């Protein structure tokens, strides 16, 4: 009897699949919401999204931000997004892939952005996160740092901070750390 129901379920799945190929995988609510978010993206020209594992893996993607103004103008900063199946109830896990000299990003790539932590709400979306990351490069925040050294330099000597950013983006050492060339 149990076997009969399994056969009927398989037949129903095959009937739903119009091309007669393999049955389609059922998407989670998180995947459906993420698909909607990605379809509705309205990114600034300096931001791009890519899917290194192909379009079939929407839950893992990368965003590149190339600021046009400010301390980080001319750089290209890549972020990995890992989205939970229970999205939007949990915020995506976002990491900066290259090491960057920034008060709100630590050397492991962790990002200090309030909407990725305590201020996350299910009404927020991927577009909001990308704009938040873009804003971190437009206006770094020394008041809520992950890289305390960079925050202190920004707070006390913005010109030295600007020089440190340029040195780091050129692939040089800053404060004992070596950085990747961003130009």
Q: Could you characterize what this model shows?
A:
The chain is α+β, with helices and mostly antiparallel strands. The chain is 33% helix and 13% strand. The strands form two sheets. The protein has a four-stranded antiparallel β-sheet, with helices on one face. Strands 5-6 form a two-stranded antiparallel sheet. The longest helix is centred in the first third of the chain and has 15 residues, at 2-16. The protein is elongated and about 50 Å long.
Q: How would you sum up this structure in a few lines?
A:
The protein is α+β, with helices and mostly antiparallel strands.
The main sheet comes to:
4 strands, antiparallel
Strand order of the largest sheet: 1-2-3-4
Q: Enumerate how many helices there are, as a single number.
A: 5
Question: Which regions are unreliable across 5 or more consecutive residues at pLDDT < 50?
Answer: 1-5
Q: Please give the share of residues in helix.
A: 25-40%
Instruction: Give the structural class.
Output: alpha+beta
**Average pLDDT number:** 89
- What is the terminal-to-terminal distance? 66 Å
Number of strands: 6
The backbone outline, from C-alpha atoms, is: elongated
| Rg over alpha carbons | 21 Å
Please provide the ordered H/E string of secondary-structure elements. HHEEEEHHHEE
Beta-strand percent range? 5-15%
């Amino acid at each position: 009897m149990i076997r009969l129901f399994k056969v009927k379920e398989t037949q129903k799945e095959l009937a739903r699949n119009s091309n007669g190929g393999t049955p389609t995988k059922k998407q989670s609510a998180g995947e459906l919401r993420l698909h909607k978010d990605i379809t509705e993206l309205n990114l600034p020209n300096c931001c791009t999204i890519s899917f290194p594992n192909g379009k079939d893996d929407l839950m893992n993607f990368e965003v590149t931000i190339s600021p046009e103004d400010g301390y980080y103008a001319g750089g290209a900063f890549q972020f990995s997004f890992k989205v939970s199946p229970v999205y939007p109830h949990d915020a995506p896990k976002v990491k900066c892939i290259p090491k960057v000299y920034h008060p709100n990003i630590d050397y492991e790539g962790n990002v200090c952005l309030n909407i990725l932590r305590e201020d996350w709400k299910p009404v927020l979306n991927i577009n909001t996160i990308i704009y938040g990351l873009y804003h971190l490069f437009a206006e770094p925040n020394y008041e809520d740092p992950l890289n305390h050294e960079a925050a202190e330099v920004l707070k006390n000597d913005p010109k030295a901070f600007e020089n440190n950013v340029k040195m780091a983006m050129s692939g040089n050492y800053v404060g004992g750390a070596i950085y990747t060339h961003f130009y």
